[in-house]
Amino acid sequence: MRCPPWIVAFALPWLAGAQAPSGDAILARVDANIGSDNKVTLARMVVEGRGVTRTVESRSWVRGMSESFTEYLAPPRDRGTKMLKLGDQLWTYFPESDRTIRISGHMLRQSVMGSDLSYEDLMEDPRLTALYTARIAGEEAHRDRPCWVLELTARKPGIAYQSRRMWIDKARDVALREDRYAKGGKLLKTTDVLEIERIGTRWVAKTVVFKDVLKSGQGTRFELVSIEFDATIPEHVFSKAMLRK
């Protein structure tokens, strides 16, 4: 039976709204996909510089959105280096000098282990909705996947990247590509996801290339070797005493 014209006229705007969620709603789904109370990860960073490639391996324990502890396992010269994040404070322990240094101010912009990631990147709240508002800038395919293109604007000054442009996989709620900008609009860093894996109910970026466009080299390839969501982590892991153990 053919629908009366008035029903079609009424339904079309509702259907259009259902098919195009707001930018903030899409960003909230991205947060929900990767968010976890506790997780333990084993990761590898392959840093590709001028004719030199080095691999850094680490294990991290993360609790909530503001606490993490990382221990570097390789290469030998970096083994035993540890980092502790508690809220907006970050400490690094260097075994060769047996010193613990608090990383703050301009030091947060420095490279971590010679990679394209900074301490500031590691300090950032993983909940993007806490840092940015988002709007849909368009729809585009990336690596043959239909994506929402989001433009993110910082909610307050002082955030490392004042704006971002993200390509969000429509079906999997995960960012496949990202451009990060300074306040004046200058491009600072890019990320490109090369591999995604389904782990339980989540889609997780397994291999990502980070590129600091202000540096030479081919970028840093981040490889997630393993991840355990909702892990049981002892309380003592997130203490300054663990830095020297």
* Rg value: 20 Å
Beta-strand portion reads: over 45%
Shape: globular
Spatial arrangement of strands, main beta sheet: 6-5-4-3-2-1-13-12-11-10-9-8-7
CATH superfamily: Lipoprotein localisation LolA/LolB/LppX
**Which consecutive residue ranges, at least 5 long each, have pLDDT under 50?**
5-17
Number of helical elements = 4
**What is the ordering of alpha helices and beta strands?**
HHEEEEEEHHEEEEEEE
Output the structural class.
mainly beta
Q: In this structure, how is the largest beta sheet organized?
A: 13 strands, antiparallel
Identify the CATH architecture: Clam
Rounded mean pLDDT score:
90
Features:
mainly beta; 245 residues; outer membrane lipoprotein receptor (LolB), chain A; 13-stranded antiparallel beta sheet; globular
Textual characterization of the structure:
With 245 residues, the chain is mostly beta strands. It has a single domain, classed as Lipoprotein localisation LolA/LolB/LppX (outer membrane lipoprotein receptor (LolB), chain A), CATH 2.50.20.10. 15% of the residues lie in helices and 47% in strands. Strand 10 and strand 11 form a beta hairpin.
